[in-house]
Specification:
By secondary structure, the protein is α+β, with helices and mostly antiparallel strands. The protein has 3 domains: 246 residues, no CATH class; 94 residues, no CATH class; 110 residues. Helices cover 60% and strands 13% of the residues. Strands 1-2-3-4-5-6 form a 6-stranded antiparallel sheet, with no helix packed on it.
């Protein structure tokens, strides 16, 4: 049984990490969300969307941001907590009282494992659903045709190839127009140009039709059958209905298609199983074709084909089997609700040569396997970053905030550059999905374990190093000029 001192120490170390962890998650998520708002806010406002729809877009962006910031927050918390403990000589005091370095590291690593499990649940269960809803909502927004996208002093296409509008001034708040010119090309038998001193826009309650009320203007019209005849009509008030503008936002209710980032691991495993079946069937078809040619040359009858249907319910991993069994026991309806929609291997694929069908199936299998391994690797990065952060913080405890920010940014930049490069290599069948996604984790884990071994040596407690010592240590790794 562990001594009470160790349990008290473990709780103390965990408490020292909680505050910087929560702060790092909140700060990093807020910064990335603000960046997302700054990039998209203008486009969304220009669509004339209701406020709650704009809020929904950014709320649905938060799960992806949190998935990225959780591992980084673990690194920030470990660097900050251990550098502060080292600078205050608390690590030295613990070792002087007989507390081993392993006992100091153990609660932090256990906490990192808990964060990795939380990150895995978030990436596998929450993130795919939010990505699916966000993608569906953005697609609906793109189909919307708002009036507020009309630009001043520019000929705006209201209806494609039929109705054009230009206004010198447009008030988006009141929908009032000034110095209006309209080019009506909807009737092939005539061409109309309408000008007005002012006007205003309004939509029908259904939001499908646009009404333009024009004041003090004229209509100039030329008929194709009478090119020498010109009509000019003056008006004080003229109401023009433009049908089918469709300003309302129509939400998609049942969107069954899901990409790789909108599927859970179990859903992607079913896609992988189907891709493997398609590759196997293509190889069998190629072998069958060769045998048929040989039998035809020998004047023998062709062998009957034995085609099998893919098992769409196939689940590969123990995790998915356990999850499916738990779903049946706890919530049967929820367990069967998610359907996997992928690109159908229809007649266009069947018409391809067998080797091309095999290659296409392998590419699809690789892309989904890479996504599965990426979810696992990013979740495991919480533990990897804790292993990396502990020795760095103890070796340079007086680095302060500069060390925390600089080291976090450097590690995370290198890690995600490696992750992106590995994803391209995995999708291109150059590396296996496991290696392509786990190489950054393996490299940083090796470096972290070497650092932990160094700080565990006798006399390798906190040296009081600062950023200057860190710079000198990095320079020693660089090749010297001759």
């Amino acid at each position: 049984m562990a001594r009470p001192t160790v349990r008290i120490l473990s709780r103390y170390l965990v408490r020292q990490h909680l505050a910087p962890l929560v702060f790092a998650v909140a700060a990093l998520t807020s910064l990335m969300l603000l960046n997302q708002i700054a990039k998209q806010f203008g486009n969304l406002i220009g669509k004339g969307l209701p406020g709650h729809v704009i809020v929904e877009v950014f709320v649905l962006s938060i799960p992806f941001i949190v998935a990225v910031t959780l591992p980084m927050a673990v690194l920030v918390a470990v660097l900050y907590a251990f550098s502060r403990l080292g600078a205050d000589n608390e690590i030295t005091a613990m070792k002087a009282n007989g507390i081993s370095v392993g006992q100091i590291f153990k609660p932090v690593l256990i906490g990192a494992v808990v964060m990795a499990m939380l990150s895995f649940f978030w990436n596998d269960q929450v993130l795919p659903r939010s990505n699916h809803r966000l993608r569906s909502l953005l697609t609906d927004i793109q189909r919307k045709k708002p009036s507020f996208t009309l630009r001043e002093q520019v000929i705006n296409e209201v209806l494609a190839g039929q109705f054009f509008l230009r206004a010198a001034r447009i008030d988006g708040a009141t929908n009032r127009l000034k110095d209006v010119s309209i080019y009506d090309l909807g009737d092939v038998e005539r061409r109309r140009v309408i000008t007005a001193d002012s006007g205003r826009m309004a939509y029908t309650p259904g939001g499908q039709d646009l009404y333009l009320t024009l004041l003090d203007g004229e209509i100039r019209e030329v008929k194709r059958t009478e090119p020498t005849h010109f009509d000019r009509t003056f008006f004080a008030t003229n109401v023009i209905r433009v049908p089918g503008v469709g300003n309302s936002l129509e939400r998609t209710i049942n969107d069954t298609y899901r990409g790789d980032r909108e599927l859970t691991i179990c859903g992607m495993e079913r896609v992988v199983a189907k891709a493997r079946w398609e590759a196997r069937q293509a190889r069998l078809a190629a072998r069958q074709a060769v045998l048929d040619d040989l039998r035809h040359a020998a004047a023998l009858a062709s062998l009957p084909r034995t085609d099998s249907a893919p098992d769409s319910t196939a689940v590969v991993s123990v995790y998915c089997r356990a999850l499916r069994q738990a779903g049946r026991l706890l919530a049967p309806k929820e367990a069967n609700a998610a359907t996997v929609a992928t690109q159908a291997s229809g007649s266009d694929e069947a018409a391809q040569p067998e080797d091309q069908r095999v290659h296409t199936a392998r590419l699809r299998e690789a892309s989904y396997m890479v996504e599965i391994q990426k979810k696992l690797a990013i979740s495991a990065a919480c533990v990897v970053f804790a292993i990396v952060g502990i020795p760095v913080a103890l070796r340079f405890p007086r680095g302060g905030v500069g060390l925390v920010l600089g080291m976090s940014l450097a590690v995370y930049t290198i890690y995600y550059v490696g992750l992106i490069a590995g994803e391209d290599l995995g999708d291109g069948l150059i590396l296996s999905p496991f290696l392509s996604m786990w190489i950054p984790n393996l490299i940083f884990t090796t470096l972290g374990l070497v650092g932990l071994w160094l700080v565990r040596r006798e006399g390798s407690t906190a040296h009081g190093g600062d950023l200057a010592d860190l710079r000198n240590a990095l320079l020693r790794w660089l090749p010297r000029r001759s």
